[in-house]
Amino acid sequence: MPTQTSAQRREEARHAHRAAVDLCPTNRVLDRLGDKWVGLVLVELEKGRSRHADLARALAGASQKMLTQTLRELERDGLVERSVTPSVPVRVDYALTPLGESLLPVLHTVTRWATRHIDDVDAAQRAYDRNRTPRSHK
Amino acid sequence: MPTQTSAQRREEARHAHRAAVDLCPTNRVLDRLGDKWVGLVLVELEKGRSRHADLARALAGASQKMLTQTLRELERDGLVERSVTPSVPVRVDYALTPLGESLLPVLHTVTRWATRHIDDVDAAQRAYDRNRTPRSHK
DNA sequence: CCGTATCCACAAGGATACTG
DNA sequence: CAGTATCCTTGTGGATACGG
């Protein structure tokens, strides 16, 4: 008589595998890169140090909350450096750290693939949708 | 007298910018790559064609629903090909398409950066957290 | 064996208003 | 100017059960 049912064993395996996935460096990086505004911020900072207000202008689609949150996460990861100049009003600049700059080539690799193959992806999506959503007339 | 308030103009700009972001090939790809199980599936299929059940075993952490959903999305994007052998019970295999294989080097670039620099990221996070959550004793 | 349908919890993201 | 706090809507992912 087993001390655990097979369902119990499977659930344990699920949790163990999930913990491993969450620790996996690649997945952690993909996760960060997958955040909605991270790519845009990196591209913007690649042009050079930038003030908060300038970033806000460049990322007009992002809410103030999301912009700040994104910058904080990147700062915590050591990818972005935040520097405050205590004037009145205060001036806050953001810049890539060396670690952040080392990530740029990775981003460029993604961008290159995307621009080269996005047409293929679009075509595939259209073909897929065509076969599943046949023209309404029967 | 302006026909729109500045608040209205800013909101329009937000929406316009967001639409552009959603269309941007790079962001679309980052979005897909950021999906929780996409990286794992690609790594698994890189080893070769695989049955659904084998993928389920390899991705023990993923629920059946998410596994299927992930595979569908990748199929729709033209990255993965699904083939059904109508035996009893049915046998379903998944394999990378040439387009999917062309994405592997991109993934490897991410993996390489991640394994090389994850220690730096961890150190940065610890340092950041240390300065914001000072030891409880005062 | 493979897939779908439901229902559900939680996290991500956004709108707004307010502070130093 | 930069940031925080609050509230709210939506999307993502998971558990479970059922069907071909």
Please describe what this structure looks like.
The structure is a homodimer of 138-residue chains. The first copy, chain A, is mainly alpha-helical. Chain A folds into 2 domains: 1-33; 36-132, Orthogonal Bundle (Arc Repressor Mutant, subunit A), CATH 1.10.10.10. Helix content of chain A is 67%, strand content 10%. Chain A contains 6 helices and 3 strands, in the order H-H-H-E-H-H-E-E-H. The first copy, chain A, has helices spanning 6-23, 25-34, 38-46, 52-58, 64-76, 98-132, and strands at 50-51, 80-85, 91-96. A 3-stranded antiparallel β-sheet of chain A has the order 1-3-2. In chain A, a hairpin with a 5-residue loop joins strand 2 and strand 3 (91-96). In chain A, helix 3 (38-46) crosses helix 6 (98-132). The longest helix of chain A is centred in the last third of the chain and has 35 residues, at 98-132. The termini of chain A are far apart. The mean pLDDT of chain A is 91. Chains A and B meet through helix 1, helix 2, helix 3 and helix 6 of A and helix 1, helix 2, helix 3 and helix 6 of B. Chain B binds a DNA duplex (20 and 20 nucleotides) through residues 35-37, 51-53, 56, 62-66, 68-69, 84, 88-92.
